[in-house]
Amino acid sequence: MNAVQLTAAVIGALLAGTILLLVRRTHLHGSYALWWFAVAGAILVLGVFPPAIDWLGHVTGIHYPPVIPIIIGIGMILVRLLTMDIGRSRNERQLRRLTQKLAILEQELAQLRRDKPRKFSGKGAKVIPMPKSGDG
Amino acid sequence: MRVYNWIFAVPDYAANLLTIIPARNEAATVGEIVRRVRAAVGGDVLVVNDASDDETSAQASNAGATVLDLPLRLGAWGAAQTGLRYARRNRYAVALTLDADGQHHPEELPRLVSAWLASGANVAIGTYPQRLSKAKRLAARYFHLITGIGVQDFTSGLRVYDRRAIRALAAREASLLDYQDLGVLMLLRSHGLKLAEVPTPMSQRRNGGSRVFSSWPTVLRYMLHTSVLCFAQIGAVRSGTRA
User: Fold this and answer.
1) Measured between beta carbons, which residues in chain A are less than 8 angstroms from residue B44?
2) What DSSP line would sit under chain B, residue for residue?
3) Which burial class, exposed, middle or buried, applies to A75 when counting CB atoms under 10 A from its CB (0-12, 13-18, 19+)?
4) B169, B175, B177, B178: best to mutate for the A interface, most A CBs within 10 A
5) Are B70 and A103 an interchain contact pair (Cβ–Cβ within 8 Å)?
6) How would you write the pLDDT of chain B (243 residues) with one tens digit per residue?
7) Interface pTM (ipTM) of the complex?
8) Closest CA–CA distance from residue B74 to any residue of chain A (Å)
9) Residue B214 at interface with chain A, using a CB cutoff of 8 Å
10) Three-class SS of residue A50?
């Protein structure tokens, strides 16, 4: 194993380890974790087995195989950026609609409280026993 | 005859009409506007407070309006859409929208509604072509060219919507629009709804010109943003039932 292979292997292993840790601590959502695992796997494979790059160059007709990891890398970054913006747009839409719904429900709640003030005083409310221990 | 004539034929027609006033930091004028709307139109008045820093909410409430307080700033369209969602939720048949800064005169609303009824359109936009700047006229001509929508003052917030338009605009697909302008109009058209433009006297804005057409970088950004939106919508417009 030469220096380049070792570097790639270390980077891949570190990335995979970090991702595992992040998923374990619930800092990374499931589908994102899958993506980053694939990235870590690709770095490991291409770094540890350089013939894979030459094989890819042969298959794709790229005569200068060393650019392949760069092309794949940039391509993956572009795809990731696009999916991120799609996700951000979805989040923005949901945030806006939630904000609107919150304002509408708040007004309805205030109206209800004004109309029937005693009903919401808490007197005579039935206490629903909650389980003492749970799994979440 | 007109579908909506019954609204005005029955004595409590006002129960079916909601006037929506989006407001951000308009404490100085919103109370007076609410009172004038109640006097001129009757019906319920809803002020959507777009996360104001001042007393907009209290002023509107004191003047007799129902107030929705948005916890985050959503912009003029986001606030107007909140009102339309409220209208849909509470089954209003007609929604009027006007700005809270006093540029639209509540006394003109009955005339606008009559013109809307006479036009047979689903949506009427109250516009005042005389006050438009050269840049805005040029923009209107350009957008007319690429979208086929010939509304002169396409950013005007003085509008009347019927039930179908309320339903179309309260939907999720209208939530990512950033301005109350061509995006909204194109969405209405893709639903096969008809637009009418009604000349209506207005005042100049208290704080000078239009917010969108304030400085060149803003105009450029707005034009690019809206152009992309227009081009992206061309297919959608064709596939819809064209009005």
Assistant:
1) none
2) --TTHHHHHSTTGGGGEEEEEEESS-HHHHHHHHHHHHHHT-SEEEEEE-S-SSSHHHHHHHTT-EEEE-SS--HHHHHHHHHHHHHHHTT-SEEEE--TTSSB-GGGHHHHHHHHHHHT-SEEEEE-GGG--HHHHHHHHHHHHHH----SSTT---EEE-HHHHHHHHSGGGTT--SSSHHHHHHHHHTT--EEEEE--BPPPTTSS-STTSSHHHHHHHHHHHHHHHHHHHHHHHHS---
3) exposed
4) B175
5) yes
6) 344 444 555 445 567 899 999 999 999 999 999 999 999 988 899 999 999 999 999 999 999 999 999 999 999 999 999 999 999 999 999 999 999 998 899 999 999 999 999 999 999 999 887 777 888 888 888 888 888 888 888 888 999 999 999 999 999 999 989 888 888 999 999 999 999 999 888 887 655 445 666 678 888 888 888 888 888 777 664 444 443
7) 0.83
8) 7
9) no
10) coil
Give the pTM. 0.80
* Tokens, residue B72: 């985050």
Q: Distance from CA of residue A14 to its chain's centroid?
A: 18
The distance of B70 to chain A (nearest Cα, Å) reads 5
